[in-house]
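A note on notation is needed here, since sequence and fold are reported together in a single record. The reader may check this reading against the record printed directly beneath this paragraph.
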Amino acid sequence: MIFLVLILSGSLVLALSGFPACFFPRCSVTGQCVTVTLMVSGSIAGLVGTFGALTMPVPTVISLPWALPFGRFLVSADHLSAFFLVPVFIVPALGSFYGLAYWNQAEHPENGQKLVLFFDLLSAGMAFVLVSRDALLFLMAWETMALAAFFVLTTEDDVREVREVGWVYLVATHAGTLILFILFVYWYTVTGSFELVGARHLAASSASIIFALAVGGFSFKAGLMPLHIWLPGAHANAPCHVSAIMSGVILKMGVYGILRMSGLCVPSGPWWGILLLVGGCVSAVFGIAFALGQRDIKRVLAYSSIENIGVISIGM
């Protein structure tokens, strides 16, 4: 129980760590330093809980009622969640520390507070995605992550190109979220519950629909071709430490979603693997081919990330 509480506490600190900066003058570095201190503290607490969860043979579960008419506050940290939580608690903390010099608030008073606020919310959103075991809670955390990513991506929203790639991202991410809505409604229809727990009794046809919807919805976030349309522009126009979060962590949330949902059902045939294999090969080959033709280093990073996701898909 203590390890899961540490993960939740660390995630909550991440979510709140950007707010103190908003109470200081816009050009004050003090607020940014307070934010970084809280960010690192929350990440350390989360990492301690994460490594503890990796040692537990049976995952701890916290289940509490809430005021919503459906579902409940249901969280857990099994080995799959803990594996993905490690970069969530490491990369954003390093990025936040890097931002002290790279995006110093005294030099960027027009958007420094916005960046630290949504950067930290993005990190917390990803952490809650990984521990959510209720479909409604998962979608709330997913949307927090998606919207926070939009605001950090469009930090320099006075630049027209940044606004344009921001809207492309917003449309793409919500196309994926719409598919996830359909996925979880169908999940409730066939299981009678919003709890994301094993449903290995499902008919092969139902399991196949769940898998297809999961791949379709989460591939937008993972950046698998041809659903990668938002990624190159987002990488090229986001601040550098935001691009690092995109490559190192955000794309992996899509991978996690596919693994999580497909692991709840019994595969109905070899086409599950074939679909991921083909999608992975296309992304790996064309991703690195497009990377070779780029002249902007951040676009090279974007297409290299697509290639890496392709390799991960082949591995899955």
User: Anything to note?
Assistant: The first helix runs from residue 2 to 16. The CA atoms of residues 211 and 262 lie 6 Å apart.
